[in-house]
Design goal:
single chain, 473 residues, five-stranded parallel sheet, elongated
Amino acid sequence: MNPMQYPEEPVLLVDDEPAWLRSLSFTLKKEAGIRNVIRCDDSLKVKELLSTLKFSLVLIDLNMPGLSGEELLGMIVRDHPEVPVIVVSGVNQVETAVRCMRHGARDYFIKSEEIERLIASIHRNLEFRSLQQENTRLKERVLQDRLENPGAFESIITGSRKMRAVFKYMEAVAPSPEPLLITGESGVGKELIARAMHDLRGGNGPWVAVNVAGLDDNIFSDTLFGHAKGAFTGADQVRSGMIAQAAVGTLFLDEIGDLSSVSQIKLLRLLQEKEFFPLGSDRPLKLQARIVVGTNVDLLEKLDAGAFRKDLYFRLCAHHIHVPPLRERPEDLPLLLHHFIREAARALGKKRPTPPRELPNLLSTYSFPGNIRELRAMVFDAVSLNDSGILSMEPFKKALLSAHGGSTPRSGDHRMLEKKIVRFSEQLPTMGECIDSLIEEAMKRAQGNQTLAAGMLGISRQALGKRLKKQFD
């Protein structure tokens, strides 16, 4: 959305005094950044305006010729209940204010006396209206089970229903100006999700991505806010920060969970005030970019440990997307495998090899703690070593064997260890029954492929064949 048109749907001002309408419009623009305003000095025209345009908020006077403010309030509440109404009147009577609130007004203010409280109420009601619209869009996406902008997700290779649910949520919250928090393990594609959100918003303005992990407080400030000439030793010219470079586009801050407490305060102030000061400058600049942040750490654990601010967390997670790990999207393995084989062959200048039918089954037995990034590295290694038309499975087997060979499992392998814990009933099974059950499970996971099943069990294919033959004899 063009920031010159904030909010997305206009605010309607209704008063029979044109001078007051001009004054209020100027105040909203200067003090609240609200530029998308329509003024109406004839209350009889309001009904037609509401029937032809969508408004985010209506501000009305009470004493007007034609339709009075109270009559107008009743009509709007009855015919357009989704549009919040605020009364701004010269009538300072408690009874009148109470009556208007009972009839559906969201707030009641006295002209020229309560401007700060009026602006706070306008912002509050605009946020409520935005959340209301997002909920409606989200419900529509779920019920329709279709994507409005499938092209925005073309760079994300997936056939997962979980990912489709993520895409539908993204479409619902894309118009919102609020921050977006993207969580997920390392290598799941959080930056791809952030870039897709940028595209969903029309791709207007630049895309700027910054990894904030390891940045100390001074470098963090300089990177985001920039500096004025002479701000510190060596600052011999003005430098615009990443926020200014993002302009009306998207600023993606990755590894947000690693920010220091001081940098967290600076980011919180930016999100609250919607403005920032370049280092060495006393003139604030407006935040216009959509802020998207990503992290692979559990922020709730950091909250409990006192390592992450609660107020910042709740600011960041106005909208929250969790990208599921690859092990929870087994249907994506064949798609990603073929995609990375094509990419690797093109990058390495080789003829594209054909993957064996057993390869997806083999890969499905692994938890992929490094997720999509780890799978891509495996495929590139295998293609670089391959000299035939059929892709060899040996590099993959070696990679999986190496991953399981260490004494300490990598992040994410805890689920595989949990699967190995067997809880027995009161009567223990015999050794023969245990072996038979183990072989049955391995054959099930390998989808009947004896070579893969034998590899899982750590025995030769011949030994497995003998055991299977014994079972059926």
